[in-house]
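input
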Amino acid sequence: MIDHINPTFKTLALIAGTIALGFTYRWELNVAVIILAYLCLLTSKHAKLRNVLLITIPMIFISVSYFFTAWLFPSSAEVANTAAHIIVNPAVTNGINLGTRLSAFASIGVAYGMTTDKDELIASFIQQGRMPMSMGYAILTALNLTNLIHQEYKQSQLAFQVRNMKSRWFDTKALFTMLIRMTRWADQLALAMEAKGFSEDRTMKLKVNVHWYDYLFLIGFPSSIIVAGILL
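output
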């Protein structure tokens, strides 16, 4: 479902929805956002169930901690605001509001991060967001070189060990050697890209299109939160 949304429109919609959610303080709306976020995660081809569970467990723990904190140590202003809408214990409802509020914000971020492909995101920013080509490819290169940086650091540590030099867990000598090797590698990569015609005028293999449902999601998601916040 959410996989087919244009990444640029998805980014703008979720940012606007998060800002709109920040002006509300109703646990019903928070729960609805959490359910919607997890429906997107379960129906996405990018999100893996194991990763979702690994993030959900600490999120639940933190939300429960916030619930007990707001329940046992509530502020008078929050309790007075909550008591105007309910009949049951205002402190308990205040804790539910705060706990679900945290989970709602976290769920939006998790749903965005796990259902968005980085290549499609950068391509969409370049094509629809008018991001400069050089900036887009610099970000994409940095994301793809994360594993390479770790491997280069391990090789630098191994080189010191071969020469019978002690290498600690975080060694500045190995780090400095890694930075030199990565700088040389970056220069070679830039020269190779320039030699093969990677300029601002080149065409892109990955084309990200805009459909009618992208505009619907961009307008509908934050609007629904605003309307629900007014009606509840």
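quick obs: The mean pLDDT is 79.
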